């Protein structure tokens, strides 16, 4: 008997037409699974921010969502350029977004702190020029 | 009492099973089974999209007819605000309102007047609401409120708990008629003259209160030709009707409520698909800083309602012009006509978790796994020939026992 599920979404760089699709697909699935609406909302926000982050700051990447009876995990992994100073990146208001992206209303620097706020567990690992990976866990 | 009651229904004999309505339904509530469209009751929000799109007029809304008035000793007409968009601007609206008296009503209460009263309160309501509840979402369009119940349970605290103008008008009408005539409740018939199946449903299955003060509803389209005829042929003195000001009339189109509330940070959105996109953003907390959202299932707002007759954009333009009519009363005067307690909901709105696959989480995961596997094996054309709106929904229907895999005309025979 299968007790967990896995969904994967690729997120291309600099393409805002696709950003948001992982979040809304995951939301639909969680709704059908009957998960608490507060948790669904936090997963959706965290996933959305992760998608936007990948689209803005990285060379593209992937969102994986794992669902088990105990937790929902969202893993966002990109193909670089990585984060030099994670502590600084986690500070509210810090953003490396270009002005072009800020004009679109994104990149205010709320991404990482907001994702952390939405998760019960939040892990971030990064290697400069190689990747950044976020693992966000929410317990059901 | 039955769990569901819907005004929207199917004239079976007119339905050809063409699937137009199924593709258009925003909540995927329609399936075509044995060549006939069938509504999944718990999903329908009575938006009337299916009424608008059906080429054979097989979808309609259950409403009352004028002969039903005979069951009451005193009959009141409550014309919806969007009525103002249904007649050319050179028409005298007072004369239009007088046609109701010739159609058998004893009195007319303009819903726009009630919208004026609500507008007077709404400003303070928005100003005084806690920041966490913002953006506040208007509940004027009941189709949107029902959409929130089934799809956005986390937004229930955002919704404005104020009655609809028609309900407020009905309450006032009932009180005044009882005082004037001494008749009993059941002898007084209060009928909404309406453009909207969702509002009709709210008479029988109200949102936010136990019982509506309305008795029933008559669709505008069913009496429109007679109104035109009477308008031309009526002679004698016209009664001076109590009517709404520009602010109240403005409620008949998208943007009217925001104008009435006089705020800057608002979003006025029409068309159920666009409403859904805006609610998605609210759900992602991306619209912090917006104070008020008015969303309408119908394009242009209620003037585009399914039971109206005029083209929605022409109707909207007419309402825009009439909405310039200056205020008749001050806010204080309007408030003195009806207390705040008399316009707020008494009941809490509950979410409807109808999209759940199973009560048991593990079973839900099992079902979801089956759905994903089935979905992969379907062609992905979303052609609808199986009777489900998308390949994904056929996969769901199969797993939930509502359909068979062989219903897919592409895969049938191939396997
Ligand atoms: S009224 Fe709206 S929700 Fe109900 S079946 Fe028709 S299109 Fe679907
Ligand atoms: S927009 Fe108006 S007419 Fe259309 S469904 Fe909503 S309330 Fe009814």
Descriptive report:
The complex is a heterodimer of chains A (140) and B (415). Chain A is 36% helix and 27% strand. Chain A has a 5-stranded antiparallel β-sheet with strand order 1-2-3-5-4, covered by helices on one side. Chain A is built from 5 helices and 5 strands, in the order βααββαααββ. In chain A, strand 2 and strand 3 form a beta hairpin. In chain A, helix 1 runs antiparallel to helix 2 and helix 2 packs antiparallel against helix 5. Chain A is α+β, with helices and mostly antiparallel strands and 140 residues long. By secondary structure, chain B is of the alpha/beta class. Helices cover 37% and strands 11% of the residues of chain B. In chain B, the strands form 4 sheets. Chain B has a 4-stranded parallel β-sheet, with helices on both faces. In chain B, strands 7-11-10 form a 3-stranded parallel β-sheet, with helices on one face. A two-stranded antiparallel ribbon of chain B has the order 1-4. In chain B, helix 3 packs across helix 8, helix 4 packs across helix 6 and helix 4 packs across helix 13. The longest helix of chain B has 18 residues. Chain B is globular, with a radius of gyration of 23 Å.
